[in-house]
Structures are given as C-alpha cells and as structure tokens.
C-alpha cells in the first residue's frame, strides 16, 4: 500500500493503517480519521455503509461493533440514505470521539 503524500512533506509519524488493523492509537487528525475510515470502504463507492463502519469499529476492539455501527450511521447519516458520505464524516467523527475513545485533533 503506498504511503500517502502529505502537503507538508513526508511525515514520519504518518500512520499507515491497514484495513482490519488498529495500532491502539487513540488520537488522530481529521485527515487521518478520513484516511482510516476510507480503508474500510471495501466496495470503493466513496461511502461508508453500516457493514463497513462495523468493520472499522471492530478494528478498534470496541465492544458491540454491530450495535455501535447502527448508532453511528443513525447519528451521522444526515440525508437518511443509510450511508456515510464525505459531507457526513464530520458527524461520524463526533460519534467516534464519544463512542470509540478516538480523539480527533483539530
Ligand atoms: Ca462503501
Ligand atoms: Ca448519507
């Protein structure tokens, strides 16, 4: 998997997440969160489905990933289509902060 290029040059602390793996890090920047969540977009449609969110939550070793995925989609899915798209990821971050012990750095 290629290491993403960052506009500020190579960042040795850049975290390359692999789908299904979670290094236990509990802090990430907004961009890192987006990179991370997009690794779970297995059908590459640019949106996160409930099942994809479930795998993301499972990778954090949080409890009740299916239940939390349901709640996460409900919390973030503003237009009610059942998927989290780019414009809804901010709301998903808030959900992750409250429910997945992930701290989003500004
Ligand atoms: Ca998807
Ligand atoms: Ca949506």
UniProtKB/TrEMBL annotation:
Domain EF-hand per the UniProt entry, residue ranges: 28-63, 74-99
Keyword Repeat: yes
Domain of life of the organism encoding this protein: Eukaryota
Swiss-Prot/TrEMBL keywords: Calcium, Repeat
Keyword tRNA-binding: no
Pfam family, one: EF-hand_1
Molecular function per GO: calcium ion binding
PANTHER family, A to Z: CALCIUM BINDING PROTEIN (PTHR23050)
Name the record gives this protein: EF-hand domain-containing protein
Organism expressing this protein natively: Rhododendron griersonianum
